[in-house]
Amino acid sequence: MKVIDLSQTIHNGMDVYPGDPEVTINTVCTLSEDEYVVRQLTMGSHTGTHVDAFSHMHESGLTLSEIPLQQFLGQAVRIDLRHPFPEKTGLIFADCVDLDHYEKIVKVHPPFVGGEISEKLERALLKKQIVTYTNLASLESLPKLEPFLFVGLPLKIKDGDGSPVRAVAVFLS
After folding, report:
1. Which residues is 74 bridged to in the sheet?
2. Looking at per-residue confidence, does 118 or 58 come out higher?
C-alpha cells in the first residue's frame, strides 16, 4: 500500500485567504512544567488543506454535520483535462480549472472535487451539493488517471461551514 499526503502543514504565519483569521499556534502546557504538552490553535475553518460544506457559499446549504460522511472519501482520480472524466468518481485537478469546466464536471456526478479550482467553480459545485477541497498539496505526485482511495475527513464541527483536513491518496497495489 502506498499513501501520499496531500495536505499542507499548518504553522504560524502560513498564508491564508485574504480576510481569513491568521494562524497562531501557542504552547500552553509543557512537559517540563505540566508533564504533558498542549497547544492552542487559532485559525479559520478554511485554513490550509480544507473541505468546504455547501453552507460555505449558500445560505440554505448543508453544514458539515449534515453532509453524509461517505461524501468525504471514495475513489478518485487525478484528471487530465484532455480525457473524459469518469462517472461517480472524485475528481482531483492539478491544473487550474474554472467555470468553463462546470458542465463537464456535473455531468459525471462526482461526490467531491479538489485541487486547483476557481472560486466561481467552487461556488457552482457547492450549489450542486458537490463537496470541494482546496489547498491540496503534492498533486504532482499523483499519477494521472490512476484510481486511488481519497480520504479527506473534516473535524466534526457542529454547523461547520468548512474544516481543515488531513487529505491522503491511498494506492492499494
Report:
1. 150
2. 118
